[in-house]
Structures are given as C-alpha cells and as structure tokens.
C-alpha cells in the first residue's frame, strides 16, 4: 500500500521555541511591560477576562525590537522549510504586539487574529500551576 500521496492542504502547525538568551530578554520585557502598566493601569479589554491587556507595543522601543530580532532566524526557517514559502525579509513584520498580565482566576477567551499568517504567545513570566494554553482549529466544523 505504498502508492499513496499526502496533500497537506489545510495545515495548522503549532511551533514551540525556547528563545536563546531568554533570561536577559525576559527581564527587559518584564520591566518594559510593568512600566506600560504603571502608565496605563486600566489597559484595555479584548479577549482578557479579569487580567490587564496593554495597548500595542511601540515596535521602535528597544525590548520589543530585541524580541523580534531574537526570533527572526526562527521565522525564516519555518517560513522556508516548514511552510515552503519564499522568504522575503522586507515582508516579514509584526503587525501588533501587546502584553497580558493575568492574576489568579483571570483568563483569555477563545479568539483569533485575522489577517495574519502567524500568531504567537510568548511567556515572559509565569507562576507554577498557572493553567494552560489551549489551541482551537480556526476552521469551523459542522
């Protein structure tokens, strides 16, 4: 039965990466985020329930810029090798980046990020037994 082909027409891959030098990066990001929260304690409400949601980061600020630079090679690798797309550095950009601080009993509801090829969650700091992240297939099933 070896005469078959597999067509990956609608893949929904999930990638997992441990960022190099994450300790220093996380310290800088945490300070950046806590400063944002200090200057905007109310934040905004989007998918968060009970937590604090920042406005979009200024991608010219050093901590978000450093984060993006730390994952650029990974993005190139998955775009080229895993997705089979042509990599064009000038077209790879972060359309929005923000932070969420959830306390006990806070959570985020199921949501998506339309108009983007990739979405990511990056944990700067997490307490033990903090819960989990759940992924849902974005294609509706009937």
What is the helix content?
25-40%
The helix count comes to: 2
What separation lies between the terminal Cα atoms?
Answer: 32 Å
The total of beta strands comes to 4
Q: How would you characterize the largest beta sheet?
A: 2 strands, antiparallel
Detail the poorly predicted runs.
none
Question: What best-fitting shape do the alpha-carbon axes yield?
Answer: globular
Helix- and strand-based class?
Answer: mainly alpha
Mean pLDDT: 92
For the CA atoms, what is the radius of gyration? 18 Å
The run of helices and strands is HEEHEE
Strand order of the largest sheet: 1-4
Describe this structure in words.
- There is one protein chain.
- 27% of the residues lie in helices and 6% in strands.
- With 142 residues, it is mainly α.
- The strands form two sheets. The protein has a two-stranded antiparallel sheet with strand order 1-4. A two-stranded antiparallel ribbon has the order 2-3.
- Helix 1 crosses helix 2 (62-82).
- The protein is globular.
- It starts with 21 loop residues before the first helix and ends in a 34-residue tail after the last strand.
- The mean pLDDT is 92.
């Amino acid at each position: 039965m070896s005469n078959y082909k597999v067509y990956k027409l609608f893949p929904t891959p999930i990638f997992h990466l441990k960022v190099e030098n994450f300790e220093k990066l996380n310290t800088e990001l945490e300070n950046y985020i806590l400063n944002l929260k200090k200057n905007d304690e109310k934040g905004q409400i989007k998918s968060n329930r009970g937590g604090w949601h920042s406005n979009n980061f200024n991608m010219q600020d050093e901590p978000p810029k450093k984060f993006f630079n730390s994952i650029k090679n990974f993005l190139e690798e998955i775009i080229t090798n895993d997705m089979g797309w042509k990599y064009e550095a000038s077209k790879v950009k972060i359309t929005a980046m923000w932070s969420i601080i959830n306390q006990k009993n806070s959570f985020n509801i199921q949501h998506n990020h339309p108009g983007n090829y990739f979405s990511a969650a990056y944990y700067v700091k997490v307490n033990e037994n903090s819960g989990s992240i759940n992924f849902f297939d974005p294609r509706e099933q009937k």
